[in-house]
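Example record

The entry below shows one chain as it appears in the dataset: sequence first, then structure tokens.
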Amino acid sequence: MKILWDYIKERAGLLPCIILMEAIAFLALWLQGTEFNNISYAVGLSLFVLVIMAGLDFAKYSYKRSKLAQAKNAVLNDISYLPDTGSPKEKEYQEMVRILFEKKEEEEAKARSARQDMLDFYSLWVHQIKTPIAGLHLLLQAQKDGLAQGDWNTRMNMEVFRVEQYVELVLSYLRMEDMGRDMVLKTYDLNTIARQAVKKFSREFLYRKIHLNFSEFQRTILSDEKWILLVLEQILSNALKYTPEGGSISIGCPAGQKVLVIEDTGIGIPPEDLPRVFENGFTGYNGRENKKSTGIGLYLCKTIMDRLNHGIRIESEEGKGTKVYLDFEREERINE
């Protein structure tokens, strides 16, 4: 009954037109002297035809409403239930629905991909953080059993430091999604930021007997100190991770350029892995072989540098070391 009432309301605008047309026909026939019985017959016949047409139109209307009801229940997952239409106006509306549906599907696919990336990252992160935690348990057990040897306190501090690094990494990964709200662009001294990063890893440099070549320089950059410091710390962490004991790490700026170069004498990166080092979750051969990589560090660096309108690139030769170039030539990059 409701659908009939809806149909009447929707077609109510046609009723005055029908009455007017019947009245005009009746008047025209009457003025021509047509007998009343003939006029009544003609008007009755036209009304009969109108009733049949209205019935067919109502049937079509009911079918379309039933299809729309099905589409309403399924529209979030499938738009094939939308009824066919010959009306240009309804076609436009259906096209809008299709565009919105495709956009929804696209956003859901992105969300699923992002969620899977996060699950993969957390799975690997949990596996990685177990290593320093297990090391702490072994050191504590060795102390309890009276078997602790060497600089036990330093070794404990190093394992705690590694745990802190993994925790900071996952926090940075989460904060990066809303990086714009946590960004303050100012002019900073790059030398000072680089020294902060080096200071954080000073104990690891000493503990692993890795030589640091730090060339003093005077460079100011327009950037965000906290995020650039995070990038430098992640690059230094990678350099220390893959540089054997007794190796060296160099930090400096080429003369007259706002490009910071971090070079190590580590194991290097295989040429087939080099094009993919900035991909999210890519660990490469070295990461899989040494079980040290989460595959997120360089992805974070690349994402942060891109959002700050800076550049980053890597040169490496397997077995000889790696060079990371951080390009802060902001004005030139804007004009490109």
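Notes for this example: The chain is about 60% helix and 10% strand. Confidence is low (pLDDT under 50) at residues 287-291, 332-336.
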